[in-house]
Amino acid sequence: MKAALAVLAREFRLALRSGGGAGLGIAFFVMLVPLVPFGIGPDPDRLAPVAPGTLWIGALLASLLSLDRLFQADSEDGTLDILALSPLPLEGLVALKALAHWMTTGLPLVAVAPALGLTLSLPGPAYPWLVASLAAGTPALSFLGAIGAALTVGIRRGGLLLSLLVLPLYVPTLIFGARAVVAAAGGQDPLPAFLLLSGLSLFILALAPFAAAQALRVQLR
Amino acid sequence: MSLWRYANPSEFMRLSGAIQPWCWALAVIALGIGLIWGFFLTPDDYQQGATVKILFIHVPAALIAINAWLMMLVASLIWFIRRHHVSALAARAAAPVGAVMTVIALLTGAIWGQPMWGTWWAWDPRLTSFFILFLFYLGYIALWAAMDEPDKAADLTSVLCLVGSVFALLSRYAVYFWSQGLHQGASLSMDRESHVDNAFYLPLLFSIAGFILLFVSLVLLRTRTEVRLRRLRALQDLEARA
């Protein structure tokens, strides 16, 4: 427990101090969303239907952005070897790092998404479901990203490869997450999509650390 | 005498060298019979006319596209559990073949869909899950290509293949939640009575057999090339050290 807290505290310190890039994801999200009205026009009637999808895709890309440093920096300076020797199981370590990634990139996205929803004239009833679906779905994005990050640790310029590996894995999460918001915006019942999203997210949270840890073990060999 | 004897690369090379010509010959014969019979000797469909005959390429290609991934999954598991190098190389060899079959299924589907549905592409669940499968093939091939150390690459791509299998399956069901389909039901099935008419059934079976044999021949050829490449590398390393 003490080791787990120490790892988590270290991750936070690294992310929040200079060069950590915790703000980068949220800045990207805030940059990306206004590009949509530039692309399709300022008409609220055309923006409102695409708002849920835009916000979800924006959050997904923003969370992808900082993934390539998840294990890379620790692998370059040897920290990863020392962490692997700690009493903490590698699966736990992966889960903690993914959790820290979510708390420093995913959680801020959830917080600013309603404000960006306003700029896209997202209908009123959709806001609670936007927050709920992003809060339930973004942890899954970070944990799936950990698999991709672990697979591409040793590769120079692995960022593009990481996107290629991780984006197809994001498809089910995106479908259920965006569907819940779309349903709420259209006056339908968002609960079925939201429950499927939550179930999928829990499934990923439970199993993704094992896959990522297996990949890390290969990298450390 | 067990099947695992052929996991030995020398045994594999001997056996695959012996059966490979037969595989090619049978593939050509089955494809010849299936395609010529299918294209020229079957009647036109009463609704779809002659366009229905693209079925003889579309269905087998789609079948191979899915089963190639399944074969890679099994080969990856064998590599994980028993660490036979031939298995890892066979998985690597099958990936581009599967990817090309996916593209063939998507392209022939588009050519078929244009006159029938009035559109080249629709975000139909089946089409979409095939597109996602293609992305998984691309990622798998790219990960193999990015790695220098062969054993490490085999391990990591196996992890990706296992994770990808779970998510390809999840996506397949997730897209049904997201869109209703245009695509017709299964053309062939073991457990249902409704499949294509008998006039198309037999040439289709020949064509499927031909595609399966073609897949086996291509994978054998590519695996043999990989084994030889591995041997060549080992020889070059020896030379460099001497």
Automatic annotation (TrEMBL), chain A:
One of its GO terms (biological process) is cytochrome c biosynthetic process. Keywords: Cell inner membrane, Cell membrane, Cytochrome c-type biogenesis, Membrane, Transmembrane, Transmembrane helix, Transport. It is found in: Cell inner membrane. Pfam families: CcmB. InterPro entries: Cyt_c_biogenesis_CcmB, Cyt_c_CcmB_bac. It is a multi-pass membrane protein. GO terms for molecular function: heme transmembrane transporter activity. The chain crosses the membrane at residues 21-41, 47-67, 99-120, 126-153, 160-182, 194-216. One of its GO terms (cellular component) is plasma membrane. The keyword Cell membrane applies. Required for the export of heme to the periplasm for the biogenesis of c-type cytochromes. Belongs to the CcmB/CycW/HelB family. This is Heme exporter protein B.
Automatic annotation (TrEMBL), chain B:
The chain crosses the membrane at residues 21-42, 54-81, 93-115, 127-147, 159-179, 199-221. Keywords: Cell inner membrane, Cell membrane, Cytochrome c-type biogenesis, Membrane, Transmembrane, Transmembrane helix, Transport. Residues 6-183 form the Cytochrome c assembly protein domain. GO terms for biological process: cytochrome complex assembly. GO terms for cellular component: plasma membrane. Belongs to the CcmC/CycZ/HelC family. This is Heme exporter protein C. The lineage of its organism: Bacteria, Pseudomonadati, Pseudomonadota, Alphaproteobacteria, Rhodobacterales. The gene is ccmC.
